[in-house]
Amino acid sequence: MKEIMKDLLSTGGVSGCIITDREGELIDFLGDGGIDDTLVSALIAEITKEIEGQMKIPTDFTISALANNGNIFMTVRKDFILVLLTEPNADTGEVRLRLRRGAKLLAKLI
Amino acid sequence: MNQDGLRSDASSVEVLISLADLYIENGLIKEAKGLLETAIKQNKGVIEPYLQLGSIYIEEGNTDMALEVLSKAERIDPRNKNLQNMFESIGVKKEEEETVSLDDLLKREMDTLLKIQGILGIILVDEVGSPILAELKLPLNEDDTGVVISSIYKKIEDTFIELSMGDLRNIFLELPGGNILVFGTSSLRLIILYKKGTLYASKGNEIRKVFKKIVNILGED
């Protein structure tokens, strides 16, 4: 798992990689020490619940959210949520591609 | 024949104009002007004597007087083709008056987006999801969709605030049934519904520009 996370973290502009379960319990984290991984996990799980509740969709969806000071990329799978935090200038196309690839590999492990 | 005599003989503006033509042909410009001014006084709602008087001033190179007369004529019939030509001949370009409603301006921008391949619908809502305008190519309830997407946007916006990541600019949701792109400001959300598999990146800048135009049209933020 750490190898997959390391690979994701090597993508330009990625500052943190978080794996959490759907209840917001942190599974693993790799990245900048300044990131509050527990808080991010909890908030990401809340977003996931909001989307599932509002849109009545099952699993397997991805969100890219871009803001002035940074971006969040997250992909929701049956047993986990993979999250990448990036700098504002990160290549969004590449990050999304790596996120999807990383989620496929993690699905085999978790 | 004096001017008063002419006036008394002339029963209609057409006659006065015809006589003014005759004066002009014979070089009696001052008399023609007087006759046309009389015609104007007697028939204030008729544009022809203004046009003829204006053309005399244009011939003379008296642009100021021509402009004054033509401006009065414009009040009677601003779309008159001869009048527009005369304005142009003295270098005055009249913008075509166009009264476009706010809805039309917004629809124009949204139609631009609908021409982009893969876009199935656009919904413009306020910050609580109340629809402002919607253009949909698929059977969706725009009210419900607007509220649902706005609620999700708000949730993500709150997360960014809590994580001190600055103002949320847009979100892109890749869902099993299709993709949704949302651009937001503090008071507006532009929701764009995509076919599944459509690449957003190639048209992102174009969509962002249109969103900025919409924000300007509405005078928001």
Q: What does this molecule look like?
A:
The complex is a heterodimer of chains A (110) and B (221). Chain A has 110 residues and is of the alpha+beta class. Chain A has one domain (2-109): Beta-Lactamase. Helices cover 41% and strands 29% of the residues of chain A. Chain A has helices at 2-9, 37-55, 92-109, and strands at 14-20, 26-31, 61-67, 71-76, 81-86. Chain A has a 5-stranded antiparallel β-sheet with strand order 2-1-5-4-3, with helices on both faces. In chain A, α1 packs antiparallel against α3. The mean pLDDT of chain A is 92. Chain B has a 5-stranded antiparallel β-sheet, with helices on both faces. Chain B is of the alpha+beta class and 221 residues long. In chain B, 54% of the residues lie in helices and 16% in strands. The interface between A and B is medium-sized, with 29 and 24 residues.
Q: Compute the average pLDDT of chain A.
A: 92
Note the gap between the termini of chain A: 9 Å
Largest interface: A-B, 29 and 24 residues
Beta-strand segment tally of chain B? 5
Distance between termini of chain B? 71 Å
CATH topology of chain A: Beta-Lactamase
Number of helices of chain B: 9
Task: Kindly estimate the percentage of residues of chain B that lie in beta strands according to DSSP.
Answer: 15-25%
